[in-house]
Amino acid sequence: MAKTRWLTASEQRAWRAYLEATTLLFDALDRQLQRDSTMPHAYYEILVRLSEAPGRSMRMSELADATRSSRSRLSHAVARLEERGWLQRVECPTDKRGQIAGLTDVGFAALEEAAPGHVAAVRRHLIDRLTPQQVTQLERIGSVVVAGLESPECRAARAAQAADSATPVA
Amino acid sequence: MAKTRWLTASEQRAWRAYLEATTLLFDALDRQLQRDSTMPHAYYEILVRLSEAPGRSMRMSELADATRSSRSRLSHAVARLEERGWLQRVECPTDKRGQIAGLTDVGFAALEEAAPGHVAAVRRHLIDRLTPQQVTQLERIGSVVVAGLESPECRAARAAQAADSATPVA
DNA sequence: CGCACTCAGTTGAGCGCTCAACTACGTACA
DNA sequence: TGTACGTAGTTGAGCGCTCAACTGAGTGCG
Predict the structure, then answer these.
(1) What domains lie within chain A, and their CATH numbers?
(2) pTM score over 0.90
(3) Which positions 112-131 of B are in contact with A (Cβ < 8 Å)?
(4) Helix (H) or strand (E) holding B34
C-alpha cells in the first residue's frame, strides 16, 4: 500500500464546498418534496423515469439502473408506491422472473402535482444561482464522475458483496 | 403562483448529471467507509471536524453547523459514537444548557485508520478524474450554492417547523 | 421578582436504506 | 436430460435520519 496522497489545499476546498453544497441542497429538496408532496426525492425520481418510459412502465432492473438505485432499494420503494396506488406491478410475459412496474393515473397525477414545486426549488437553490458557463461545467464534471463510477471495475466492486458470498470456499 | 419555468435541455442535462454523479459517488463513499471502517460518512465528518478543533472538542451546536447537520441528527450520532467510546460529552461550564463533545484517543485512532482509505476513494472517484480547472470550477459552484442555502430566508425556512409549532394559534 | 419567550439539546416513533440471505426462473453444456 | 451456474427480484433485521414534542436553562422586561 502506497503512502497516502492527501488532498491539496485547493482540492480540499473544492471537495468540502461540493460536499457541503450537496448536503444542504439534497436536504432542502427532500424537505420540500416531503412537505409539499409527501414523498422523498428517491420516489419522485422513480415516478419521473416511469412517466418518460413508453407505456409509462419499465422492467424493475431497468428502472433500478435509470434511477441509480440498488435493486433492494427499488424493490422496497416500489412496494410502498404500490400501496399508495401510484404504481402497479405485473409479471413480465417473456421472462417469468421479471416484473414490470407501471405508473397508474393516480401516480401520474401525483407527479404532475409535485413537479412544479420541485423544479422551482431546483432552480431557486441551484440552477438560477449559476452562470450558463457554470451549468455547462457542472454537466461535464458530473458526466466524468458518472463515467468513472460506471466503469467495469466499479460495477464489479458494487457487486462484490454478492460475488463474495457466492464463493463459499474459493 | 407564476407559470412553471421548466428546465431547459442543457439545464436538465446538468442537473441530471450532477444528481446521478452525486448519488453514485456518495453511495460509493459510504459503502467504502462502512466496509473498511464500520462508520457512515456522516460519522466520519463529525470525527474530522472534532479532530481539527482546538482541544479536539466543540459545542454541539457548533459541530452541527460545521457538519451541516440538524441538531437532532447530531444528537443521535453523538450518542452512538459515545457508545463506541470514540467521543465523550461533558457539560459546558459557562452555559448549563450546553454540551461539549470531545474526541477520545480511541476515536482519534479510528479516524487515523479510516482516513487514508477514504481520501483514496475521494481521489479515485472524483478529484483525480477532474482537471485542475474543473476542481476550481467545482469549488466556485459549491460555494455559490452553499451561500444561497445559508442565506437568511433559507435558514428561516429550515427553522419554520419549529416556529410553526411554537405559534399555537398566531 | 415574576412571567413570557428563546435557545441548547434530547427523545421516540416512523420510515427509507443497506446488507445478506433467499426463492424462483433462465441458460449452458456435457 | 440433468446439473451447475447466473439473473431477477424480494425479504427482514438493523440502523441512521426526520419530524415533532419535550426538558430545562438563559434572557428581556413590566
Answers:
(1) 27-129 (1.10.10.10)
(2) yes
(3) 115-116, 119-120, 122-127, 129-130
(4) helix B9-37
